[in-house]
Automatic annotation (TrEMBL):
SUPFAM superfamilies: P-loop containing nucleoside triphosphate hydrolases. CDD domains: ABC_DR_subfamily_A (cd03230). It comes from Actinocorallia longicatena. GO terms for molecular function: ATP binding. PANTHER family: ABC TRANSPORTER, ABC TRANSPORTER, ATP-BINDING PROTEIN. Keywords: ATP-binding, Nucleotide-binding, Transport. Signal peptide: none annotated. InterPro entries: AAA+_ATPase (IPR003593), ABC_transporter-like_ATP-bd (IPR003439), P-loop_NTPase (IPR027417). Residues 7-239 form the ABC transporter domain. This is ABC transporter ATP-binding protein. SMART domains: AAA (SM00382).
């Protein structure tokens, strides 16, 4: 059964001196899905990623930690060969061209020379860096370097992909492309783990979300279930807001005027309730201009989780 998931971690602990950064982290990253790692600054996301990438040893008390079916404590070289890693900040060798940079990593991962050239051309295409193929890496912008880093992580066709804050330096178009790329890799069977603070975007990328808090896993959720079960406030704008207020009163839906922006905030409502209410309001003849949850679901869950630390 262990072989069937990309990452299986149970009770992972890791200390730096007396400070326990990971206090029992649990995580499953299935193949064919994108799993999001979400948590506040200092929650332990990067530390966990470094452990999974075989760059940091877990403490001896760790119960279980496997990547691609390999126990990291006994078979870390095999695990490393099966995983692609993209750190949040990474060095590039400035004097190399983009192609030379990828050739270097292809050789390090022992990709056969004959395959490497085709693979590199395909990857440059995939991350939209074809025109920079022969340019030295130092001319690339931050976002372009990040895309090169992603190509580097994919050069040996890893089964497990670990990405720490991959969207942080990307412009909106590149983020959409990253999202499509990650969804594509998952569809091809890859197990993808991604950490990010851009919660609304994670909602579109991820199938599952793992919430981490102060070095522990606070919850593992299927995102569709989380979205369906979460109750939130919905901001509604109508051409005639008085008519909207009357209709909401008649249906006993709690609501108030939105502060600092046009519209009415109604709820809390689940997605199901919100969908039914929209149908009812349209049936009542209220002309709706916009209708959307205030903030995302992940954002609400995240804020609730971190509230006591403000
Ligand atoms: N090498 C280290 N030495 C000492 N403490 C460390 C070290 N690396 C991380 N820590 C501590 O471990 C905790 C977790 O850090 P980590 O970088 O994993 O958090 P994070 O969830 O990735 O945060 P962020 O969202 O800010 O990137 C922090 O309190 C940090 O100060």
């Amino acid at each position: 059964m262990d072989q069937d998931v990309g990452v299986l971690a149970r009770g992972v602990t890791r200390s730096f001196g007396r400070f326990q950064a990971l206090r029992g982290m649990d995580l499953t990253v299935p193949y064919g899905e994108v799993t999001a790692l979400v948590g506040a600054n200092g929650a332990g996301k990067t530390t966990l990623m470094l452990v999974l990438a075989t760059l940091l040893a877990p403490d001896p008390g760790t119960a279980e930690v496997k990547v691609a079916g390999y126990d990291l404590r006994t078979h870390s070289a095999l695990a490393r060969a099966s995983l692609g890693w993209m750190p949040d900040t990474f060095g590039v060798y400035d004097r190399l061209t983009a192609v030379e940079y990828l050739e270097f990593f292809a050789a390090a991962y022992r990709v056969p020379r004959a395959d490497a050239a085709t693979r590199i051309a395909e990857l440059l295409e995939r991350v939209h860096l074809v025109e920079f193929a022969r340019q030295p890496v130092h001319v690339l912008s931050r976002g372009q370097k990040q895309r090169l880093g992603l190509a580097r992580a994919l050069v040996h066709r890893p089964k497990v992909l670990l990405l720490d804050e991959p969207a942080s330096g990307l412009d909106p178009r590149s983020r959409v492309e990253l999202r499509d790329l990650l969804r594509g890799l998952a569809a091809e069977g890859c197990a993808v783990l991604v950490s990010s603070h851009i919660l609304n975007e994670l909602e579109e990328i991820a199938d599952r979300v793992v919430l981490v808090d102060q070095g522990r896993t606070a919850g593992e959720h299927d995102l569709a279930t989380l979205l369906a079960s979460a109750s939130g406030i919905w901001r509604i704008r109508a051409l005639d807001e008085d008519a909207l207020g009357v209709a909401l009163d008649r249906r006993s839906v709690p609501h108030r005027i939105a502060s600092g922006t046009p519209g009415v905030d109604a709820g809390p409502l689940t997605e199901q309730e919100a969908a039914s209410l929209l149908t009812d309001l349209v049936g009542d003849g209220v002309r709706i201009v916009s209708y959307a949850p205030v903030g995302g679901v992940l954002e609400s869950v995240y804020l609730a989780m971190t509230e006591d630390r403000r």
